[in-house]
């Protein structure tokens, strides 16, 4: 019975988001192009992403996943954005907004 309770507790922790995505960890892939504080413009096309709202960051990353984007950087960003879950995208957008 105790083992069953332990497993149930672990499932409850997963369901409650105890293992939520870590925006800072996700952002580590972005530092080379966007800067430690998300302050760099990239290729004079992409604005410093720390100037964007969370909603704009989420929309941009999702557009890169689909191949549609307004900055014409799909070839560079699609391989980075494609493996990101919705939770990863939300977490990294939230993290970037703390860098303002």
UniProtKB/TrEMBL annotation:
SUPFAM superfamilies: Cytochrome c (SSF46626). Coiled coil: none annotated. It holds the Pfam family Cytochrom_C. Gene3D superfamilies: Cytochrome c-like domain (1.10.760.10). It comes from the Bacteria. InterPro entries: Cyt_c-like_dom, Cyt_c-like_dom_sf, Cytochrome_c_Oxidase_Subunit. Residues 1-20 form the signal peptide. Keywords: Electron transport, Heme, Iron, Metal-binding, Signal, Transport. The keyword Signal applies. Residues 18-100 form the Cytochrome c domain. This is Cytochrome c-553. It comes from Campylobacter majalis.
């Amino acid at each position: 019975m105790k083992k069953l309770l332990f497993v149930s507790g672990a499932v409850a922790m997963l369901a409650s988001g105890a293992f939520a995505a870590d925006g800072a960890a996700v952002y580590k892939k972005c530092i080379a192009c966007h800067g430690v504080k998300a302050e760099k413009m990239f290729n004079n096309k992409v604005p410093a992403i720390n100037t964007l709202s969370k909603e704009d960051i989420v929309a941009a990353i999702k557009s890169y996943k689909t191949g549609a984007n307004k900055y014409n950087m799909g070839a560079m960003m699609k391989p980075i954005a494609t493996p990101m879950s919705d939770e990863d995208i939300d977490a990294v957008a939230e993290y970037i907004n703390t860098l303002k």
